[in-house]
Design a protein that fits this description.
By secondary structure, the protein is mostly helical. About 75% of the residues lie in helices and about 0% in strands. The protein has one domain (about 1-200). The chain contains nine helices and no strands. The longest helix is centred in the first third of the chain and has 33 residues, at about 1-35.
């Protein structure tokens, strides 16, 4: 029974990794296609890719929670999932508008969930690094993902979004997409301290 449970968890972590990697690649493409107009206009391709990104981050939050990887237990991943739900509400509702200025007040409030979710990713990355239950690159990559916010604020304010969209896309590919691949290819590494045993099970399958 324990072996079956471990195998099921490995499969789900692998799927979560795929979702995270797809989301990172998708939003990287979406931001480049939308360009600077993303600040004022609703680009529906960018919205679709943004939704894939949010679902990927939700998969990451679930993985961190399921493997007990964060210091403080489930509090931070659960908070992240709540914020992501708000960001998804905004994203789906935005299909009915062309400009950000056209949106009603309640939708503008929901939009706040986007930056808050990105901030929570940074906090979650810190919690994973502090806990040290994930080993090697996995321990630090959630923090690299969360650092996107720290990178983009000065980039946007100094060189503008014209170049910023490419910096953002590069960061998405080098952080979220890579972390997703690590989880998809070696899910047992996320099961520390059971990772070694799970690796044996996977290899023998």
């Amino acid at each position: 029974m324990e072996e079956l449970t471990t195998q099921r968890l490995l499969s789900r972590v692998r799927l979560a990794g795929v979702a995270l990697s797809v989301g990172g690649v998708a939003w990287a493409a979406g931001t480049i296609v939308a360009g600077e107009d993303i600040q004022t206009h609703i680009d529906h391709f960018g919205t679709v890719t943004g939704i894939l990104y949010l679902l990927g981050v939700a998969a990451l939050a679930w993985t961190i929670m399921a493997t007990g990887a964060a210091a403080g237990g489930r509090v931070i991943p659960i908070a992240q999932l709540v914020l992501l739900a708000g960001a998804l509400v905004y994203s789906f509702a935005s299909f009915g508008y062309r400009l950000h200025d056209d949106m009603p007040g309640w939708l503008v409030v929901a939009d706040v969930c986007w930056p808050l979710a990105n901030l929570c990713t940074l906090v979650m990355g810190i919690a994973v690094a502090v806990a040290g239950r994930w080993r090697g690159l996995l321990r630090w990559y959630p923090l690299v993902c969360g650092a996107w916010l720290l990178v983009m604020i000065p980039v946007k304010n100094t060189i503008g979004m014209g170049v910023g969209v490419y910096v953002s896309a590069a960061w998405m590919l080098g952080s979220y997409a890579v972390l997703g691949l690590l989880l998809a290819l070696r899910p047992a590494a996320a099961l520390s301290p059971r990772g070694a045993a799970a690796e044996v099970v996977t290899s023998g399958a």
